[in-house]
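Our platform keeps sequence and structure together, in a single record for each protein. This encoding replaces a full spatial description with a residue-level series of whole-number codes. We quote a single record here, exactly as it is kept in our systems:
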Amino acid sequence: MKITGAVLESLDSPSPFAESRPIRIRELELDAPGPHEVLVRIEAAGVCHSDLSVLTGVRPRAVPLLLGHEAAGIVEALGAEVDDLAVGQRVVMTFLPRCGHCASCASDGRTPCENGSAANGAGRLLDGAKRIHVGAEVIDHHLGVSAFADHAVVDRRSIVPVGDDVPPQVAALMGCAVLTGGGAVLNAARLQPGETLIVVGLGGVGMAALLVGLAVEGARVIGVDANPDKLAQARALGAHETYGPAEAVEAGVKAPAVVEAVGRAVAFETALALTAPGGRTVTVGLPAPDDLASVSPLALVSTGRTIIGSYLGSSIPARDIPIFVDLWRRGLLPVESLVSSEIHLGEINEAMDSLARGESIRQIIVPEGQALRRASDSL
């Protein structure tokens, strides 16, 4: 079938991207789903910092690449071996499929699926296929999803169904921001009722971590970011205290659970400094490979602190997304508050500029013809 999608064609384009336009909206050909795959009509797709990291070369991928890894949509067709979904069902797409039989899949979410990671790195779906092309030109998949389009073919293991009552914008954020940030709080930091949580970095993932922390009974949640606007947003969402990074360190703020969601070594060092004796520092950010932090092993030993790396929030999507949806239904997880604005696909280069300037938590791409809600509107 013919689809329209946002294809990254260059990794060396200068900013502002609204001028250099490294992402081009193209008409593409999408093959029918294979036996274990599903055709999904995209209803909402979030613009995540990981998309920007690919664009800037921090997370290098082969091009051409159809971007987008955080999305929700409606099932339109099922592969021959898919018998547990129905056409018309709303689903969340997640950016790391779990094959279910490698050693990492037996780790209760602690380590990423080996086969899923290999497929993502190769720009293909879990069973090895590439379904996007223009004639003989093959377009790579982005993290098994490629949601910056009107339709996507994804592996069944990249999908979690949700109820029709979950709005598309909320469902989309469950697949990355909430799963990564919230999972880091519940699965990796294992925040306990009454404990204090510090979140370093208040982008989409960090704000999701903050919201999930606030949903834990009696927890005290502190937000840390260099952007005063982000601190104001965190307070509006319910953060008990907010600080700039240097201010937090100078004030001697400490917590037993600290989540770093920036993707820079300096932020990781800040998170370590804010971790109380015996506490857990969880890092979910994805810095450049050569961005190295300084760590004192003596300080770790003498204070009994633990450093935990957490990819995708150490989550098992099929298990954890229903947990977050239940919190949303109970009014404890206002995911819709993370939506900065809605955009159409043709605004994707401008959206990347906004993300790079730190102006947005989550911009959501919605179908052409749908009325937009901008940052100035009430979301």
Summary: The mean pLDDT is 95.
